[in-house]
Amino acid sequence: MGEQEGTCRVRGHPHETAACEHISRMLERISDKWTLLVVRALGNGPLRFNALKREVGGVSQKMLASTLRGLEENGFVLRTVTQDMPPMVEYALTDLGRDFGNPVQTFADWVIRNSERIEASRAAYAERRSVR
Predict the structure, then answer these.
(1) pLDDT at 22
(2) Distance of alpha carbon 91 from alpha carbon 113, whole angstroms
(3) How many other CB atoms are there within 10 angstroms of residue 32's CB atom?
(4) What is the pTM of this model?
(5) What would the 3-class secondary structure string for the chain be?
(6) Whose CA is closest to 80, among 93, 67, 70?
(7) Cα angle value 32/36/40 (rounded, 5°)
(8) Between these two residues, 85 and 111, which has the higher pLDDT value?
(9) How many Cβ atoms are within 10 Å of 21's Cβ, its own excluded?
């Protein structure tokens, strides 16, 4: 991985630089809305693809598949295929995914608690912008 704009680079401190690179890569992986919504949905237990798609809502099949592949690649999600006919595929959080689910749920709770304040700020900002 090459240097990234905005990554904290500390001259002479390779351990700190490596930590910043890990943080940057992980932020890139988790900072899209679908990842957070999928992890939150799977926090309630394993789901099959279409059930997960319904639970998340608004996500395309292609985007959900891509998100699940990324989560599986990084160790957050386990994909299990049964030998049934037709085969069934189920997705579940791994221990790492469940651990990550804690801050995701905390963030979701914070958003819910503060949604009225956020909306009021947006409305006030829009009003100020329209006066200009």
Answers:
(1) 76
(2) 29
(3) 14
(4) 0.74
(5) CCCCCCCCCCCCCHHHHHHHHHHHHHHHHHCCHHHHHHHHHHCCCCEEHHHHHHHHCCCCHHHHHHHHHHHHHCCCEEEEECCCCCCCEEEEECHHHHHHHHHHHHHHHHHHHHHHHHHHHHHHHHHHHHHC
(6) 93
(7) 165
(8) 111
(9) 17
The residue type at 15: H
Tokens 């904290």 identify what position? 8
Indicate the burial class of 1 (C-beta count within 10 angstroms; 0-12, 13-18, 19 or more).
exposed
Question: Hey, what are 47's tokens?
Answer: 């789901």
Q: How many residues does the chain have?
A: 132
pLDDT, one tens digit per residue, over 35-93 is 999 999 999 999 999 999 999 999 999 999 999 999 999 999 999 998 888 888 999 99
